[in-house]
DNA sequence: TCATCTAGTTAACAACTGTTCTCTGGATTT
DNA sequence: AAATCCAGAGAACAGTTGTTAACTAGATGA
């Protein structure tokens, strides 16, 4: 199935990725709606007009960045939520996952947090869609849990959204703590753990 | 105590407010980091250089907007959280408050949601500080509740942050639903109500 | 009344923006 | 080997940006 790319398409994809990387870097200190096309091409070392060979506009590049940041995350979510150990362990594992992801891809996380409510509508829409997919997947995993007996689909989705939003808040807090001390990060982890725990307790006593 | 302003200072404040209003309007379709000083003065009908009589920079104006958007909200939060009726009623009242505020000041709400993780650090800091104050105040009100017996300060603050974040998420959802039908808004209200309820149940069964 | 103060104006600056059109040289296809 | 394709370069465009300096006219205070 895998077709070895010609040296032409390979070079094109390389440039495209360089544009994405440069944009992501520049977006650490501004938002997408103020990012200039020339700014990005300058950072890559390529002519401004070359940009149009890859993206129609900056908004278009932003949508591609959403795919890059969230697209590959779906399997990870699935497996993390579905590990059927104790609730405590599941929470600890989820928070570890978030902390690790923030550590490994801080710029991606910042981009999502920033542009989720940012000034570029197509990007906001793309993020909303991806998060809705996450919620649907979490709901699917929750449904398998015996504790979800008697729960309506609506209630399961409401809980799934609560979890997803909570994950995003936690990721954002880890991001802020990245420039802090190890103790700061530990504090974030502990608060997030207790919040998740409280939600799980609410779930357990929910009048299904 | 109130000192009648001279006609000079009065006119100055009027222009300053016009700048803030114009900026808020322009920010409905972009983020602060892309807002131009000339863009704002043009919208007001004033020379670009007049801007400097009121703000050092756009970031400075942004911080003033944070104060305008959140500063006057503290008393409302206090009284809403502290009404000592049943938990159900308290939740309904809180969500009504949020829906009403989003209806009355959509641009302010959008601004806060957008710039909380936006590209302008001083503004992010100002928002974070105000939200931390909210959390502290909510914590203070929660502490008065007999149900909080045995709770540590840390746990109370963790719960307060959970409530504050949940309020922001709800406000943002109401904002999206503003352009939708009445049924959309009703659905947001119902989901938010159940989420708050679940958190309250978790609180009730928390191992203090 | 007269001197001072100051919110807002005007003009000019170098630097930057997105977009268009034309061109080129190396990869691809025939 | 020849014809085609196409990612990227180069130059030019009108329009925009933040910031400076010197100004004016009306309010303020002595």
TrEMBL record, chains A, B:
<dbReference type="InterPro" id="IPR009057">
    <property type="entry name" value="Homeodomain-like_sf"/>
</dbReference>
<protein>
    <submittedName>
        <fullName>TetR family transcriptional regulator</fullName>
    </submittedName>
</protein>
<dbReference type="InterPro" id="IPR050692">
    <property type="entry name" value="HTH_transcr_repressor_FabR"/>
</dbReference>
<dbReference type="InterPro" id="IPR001647">
    <property type="entry name" value="HTH_TetR"/>
</dbReference>
<feature type="DNA-binding region" description="H-T-H motif">
    <location>
        <begin position="36"/>
        <end position="55"/>
    </location>
</feature>
<dbReference type="Pfam" id="PF00440">
    <property type="entry name" value="TetR_N"/>
</dbReference>
<dbReference type="GO" id="GO:0003677">
    <property type="term" value="F:DNA binding"/>
</dbReference>
<feature type="domain" description="HTH tetR-type">
    <location>
        <begin position="13"/>
        <end position="73"/>
    </location>
</feature>
<keyword id="KW-0238">DNA-binding</keyword>
């Amino acid at each position: 199935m895998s077709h070895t790319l010609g040296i032409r398409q390979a070079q094109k994809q390389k440039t495209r990725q360089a544009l994405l990387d440069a944009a992501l870097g520049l977006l650490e200190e501004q938002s997408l709606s103020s990012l200039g096309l020339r700014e990005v091409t300058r950072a890559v070392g390529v002519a401004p007009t070359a940009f149009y060979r890859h993206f129609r506009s900056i908004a278009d590049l932003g949508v591609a960045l959403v795919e890059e940041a969230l697209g590959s995350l779906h399997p990870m979510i699935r497996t993390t939520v579905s590990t059927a150990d104790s609730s405590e362990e599941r929470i600890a594992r989820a928070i570890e996952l978030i902390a690790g992801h923030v550590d490994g891809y801080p710029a991606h996380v910042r981009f999502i947090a920033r542009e989720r409510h940012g000034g570029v509508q197509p990007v906001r829409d793309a993020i909303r869609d991806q998060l809705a997919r996450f919620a649907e997947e979490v709901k699917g995993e929750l449904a398998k849990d015996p504790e979800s007996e008697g729960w309506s689909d609506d209630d399961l989705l409401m809980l799934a959204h609560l979890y997803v939003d909570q994950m995003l808040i936690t990721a954002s807090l880890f991001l802020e703590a990245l420039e802090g001390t190890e103790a700061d990060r530990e504090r974030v982890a502990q608060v997030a753990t207790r919040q998740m725990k409280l939600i799980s307790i609410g779930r357990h006593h929910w009048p299904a």
